[in-house]
Every structure is written in C-alpha cells, then in structure tokens.
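The records we work with from here on pair a chain with its fold. A complete example follows; check for yourself that the lines match position by position.
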Amino acid sequence: MTNGKKRPLEEWQPTRLGELIEVKHGWPFRSELFSEELTGRPIVVNIGNFEYTGGFRFESTKTREYRGDYPHEYELSPGAILLVMTCQTAGGEILGIPGRIPNDGHVYLHNQRLGKVVVKAPERVDIDYLYALFRWPEFNRELCLTASGTKILHTAPSRIEAFQFLLPPLQVQRSIGRTLRAFDDKIGLNRRMNETVEALARALFKSWFVDFDPVRAKAEGRQPVGMDAQTAALFPDSFVDSEIGKIPSGWQVKPLDEIANFLNGLALQKYPPQDNSFLPVVKIAQLRKGNTEAADRASAAIVSAYIVDDGDLLFSWSGSLEVVIWCGGRGALNQHLFKVTSAEYPKWLVYHWTRHHLPEFQRIAAGKATTMGHIQRHHLSQALTAVPPSETLKCMDNVVAPLLGRVVANNVETRTLAETRDTLLPRLISGEVRVNETVHHA
C-alpha cells in the first residue's frame, strides 16, 4: 500500500544527459612548450593526472606547466569537471572518468581529449550527484560500447550527452552527492596529511643523511636547529673522508644491498590459482595504481616470502622504476619487482636511501638499448649509503618510524574508504539503496 503516494523510483525520471549538460572540447596545447619544472605557471591537465576511480592526483612526475600563450577561455575554474574522452583500450575503464579542478591557487588549463562539463539546467541537477554519475560503471560501460577505435578508444561530446539514465528528484540527488562526497573529503584529507608527513620525513633524511646538518652545526660550535641537547649529543662534531666524500665521524659507508635484502618476485604465471584460493598479482601496473583492482590471480600457496602486504617496501627494477611503501592489500609479488626487507636497519632508512639513488637507477635503465630498461644487482652494490652507529640510529628511529606508520595507516584507511564508496556508488545511483538508509548506517 502506498496511500496514493508514488514509490521512490517512480519519481525518478528518464533523462538524457544532454538535457542537463553540454560537453566542450579542450585546446591543443603544444607539447614542446610543456615543462616538468614546476615554477607556478599554468598547469595543463592531462589524462595521466586522472585516478582510475575518479579525481585528480597532481604529482610532480605527472604534472606539466605551459610556457606558451593560449586562449584564456581554456582556463578552468575551481570545481570544474573534466571527463576523459580518449584512452588506450587496455585502460578503457577510465573512459568518461571525471576529475574536479581543485581550489589550490594554481591555474589549470583545459587540454584536448578532455571534455569540460557545462551545466545547462542547474535547477534540475546537483553538481555532486552529477560527479557521482560520471563514476558509475554503467556510464563507463556505455561510453566504451559506443566508442570508436581499436588500440585507442575515442568518445565525443555527443556520445556523452546521449547517455540516458533515471534522474532522481533534486533533494535525493543532493543527499546522494553529499553522502559520496563525504568519502572523497576524508580521502582528500588523508592524502593532504600524508603529503605533509612524507615531506617532513624526506626533509629529516636529507638533513641527517645527505647534508649532515647536525654535524656541521656542531663542527661550527652551533646547537643543531630544532634538536634537544640529548639528541644532539648523539651526533659527532667532525667528519672523516670516505668513498662518498666526507661523512660524520663514527659513521660507516655500506652498499645498498648490504643494508637490505632485495627479493625478486616470481614468474607467477607458473603458479595459477587452485581450488578458488588465490592472491592478486602485484605487477608494475598495480604498483603505479596503488591497488590490485582487475589484477591477475596466482596461487595463495606460494612461499610466504613472496606474499606482499600493507606496509611492505616494493621497488620495480625494470620498466617504470619506482619505490613505494605498498598499501594496496595482500597480494603476490611478481617478477620485475623487489620486495625490500632488512633484519638490521629500519624500513624508513632503506626506503629513503633507495629513493635517494632512484634518479641514478632510472638514468641507467633509460640508457638500456631495450624496450624495457632495467637495472642489475651490481647497481645495488654500487649505490653507497652512509649509516650511523646503532645508538644514533635508534634515536632517529623513534622520530621517523611513527611518521611512516602514520602514512601507512592513512593509506590503508583511504583504501577502505574508497572501496566502501565504490561499492555504495552504483547502488545509490541505480536506486537499489535509499539515501536515508545509507546515511543511517554509514
């Protein structure tokens, strides 16, 4: 019995997206005027800035400034939504994926192959709901089905605008949008917190292990900045010569592969899943995405040393050389990846020393005359580190280890939040779950 009132989904109206929005093409910015050096110039948004589940990550390795002139109508306002309109077939899951321009003081530019969403009927659609709609798997599936191209998928404004769906009443839209945005806001907060914590950890490592600031201060008769007397007493006041130049007295020079064990992964195609028991395979692609979504599967019965878990240090030694603290969940270590461990030295020390040598490793790999550049184990032996006495290192560990622990905890929480959001989103957009029920139990 409905007492003459419409049931909820009966109030949802069949709607074509083009009734609500218009999608506009970007400008063909000249690639020779792009710059990886970030100096405050306008940033050209590119497909590499998009996350697989929606949103942007403007990291220095993927961000390009523009050093030329351009039509100013292609500057993007904070909050503007962009959609991916071109991608490789292997990455077709990002076709139509949205990102929202941040309000962070930077100027962002609307590049070609990205569609800008212009709302034509703000009285009919909520912007947060619209952003969620673009992340709906049904939207992506429809764009892939109607796309042109074989190796490269292309969609067009007209195909995006032709998408049809059931539009809920505006108040329901707002509730759906607020519910899902709450997850995004918390995820964003965690990421900003981690950026701050990671920057602090990098600064401490550089000060203590590269610039030797506390030792230089004491050698000059000064108190090390920001350090109490008890901690400062652990640093010497003089240097000695070494293979890497002058290092603090009492410190040692050791190769990277002496302070840690670099375990190469398995050729996991030789270990197929058995009896519906499996682990997702962590390859370079998973390392870059930070999760195991749509990953290959391997047997769960592999030797435990080759099982990857949250907080493990991973280093891809071929192709795209990267060093990360893995927080993508339990998985199996594939070949071309090192799992880096140490029984004697703290993880953060090994992590930062490996990162310190990463540019040189990348240079070596880039110089290989193969399609997939790589480094070899002797390069690990040639990468030298400066290591303090155990008492000094223990004091350092008390400061830096909690920073790494906070980053891992935030990343694991972020993954859980994203998984919950991505589970809820299609059920909310389709009307399978009512908003008030979601808000009550979330």
About this structure: Residues 170-210 form the longest helix (41 residues). The first strand starts at residue 13 and ends at 16.
